[in-house]
Amino acid sequence: xxxxxASNAAGNGRMRVLQPLALLCxxxxxxxxAASVPGMxxxxxxGVSAQPTTAGAALSASDVETLIDQVIDQQFxxxxxxxxxxxxxxxxxxxxxxGYGYADLENKIAVDPNKxxxxxGSTSKLxxxxxxxxxxxxxxxxxxxxxxxxxQAFKLPSTFAQPVTxxxxxxxxxxxxxxxxxxxxxxxPQDIIPLGQALARHQPERVNPPATSFTEGWAPAYSNWGAxxxxxxxxxxxxxxxxxxxxxxxxxxLGMNRSSFREPLPKALQADMSLGxxxxxxxxxxxxxxxxxxxPAGAMSATAADMARFMLANLQxxxxxxxxxLSADSSQYMHSRVFS
Length: 340
Fold this sequence. Notes:
Low-confidence stretches: 5-50
Radius of gyration: 20 Å
Oligomer: single chain
Strand content: 5-15%
């Protein structure tokens, strides 16, 4: 996570401010087996499903800190970073949790990895996928169902015979055009409209049939709109706003008390939000940017320490400190290679 604005990061609709540069997410994908969860038939792909590797000597916490210090120092020199936070986890423990530089240059507020919030950009989609899988576990969603079955206010057009499924949304194989330019970011809270209205207003064309077989080399097309639609379906099926749902069912159980999809941020968190900076001949700070039109795809703010707790839960089959956000089967399935 860092507090420097990328000069041209909006090409695929991703966050322009505070993109996660150095948050090291060491997710290990488990070998694929059939999961006993509704709608989760999974076919193993020999030679494709990722396997953990054990080559090389293990790095100690001191080794990791030395390495990351060197990397961050180089980034400060070459990429003009103002501040950064890095969290590294290994074997169920926090190996490194460290802040660098400033969250606020003018007021000399240093980055605190336990306190300073950053925008995590498209990493938000991992939390949206987790929310979807929770409702699949409960039998309230089916990964292979037509998403129109869950939509009331608007529907996807029947451009192709194959319906778009939740699995398509989560694997970026829905066949949508890329259309998130121009409306991804709002100027301020006055521009925020309800998520369902935003999705209906900016619905993309269906330009390719969605993937139906995930063993035939289907090419994904990155879709912020599709990911946001998945979050909207969570909202509709749960009866809670997406921000409320994630706070209660994802952040809360994991003790992620400094994470939020809310825009503007809750007052208790606003003062600790890192500023975003762009450097030309001087540092220019940016105001908080609003992504509520596509919130489940990229509006989350969090600390490095909170992100580490999410990493640990994912590495431990959906469980952290006795609290579970997903069953072991669901967690394994979510980390399985779906197609190549």
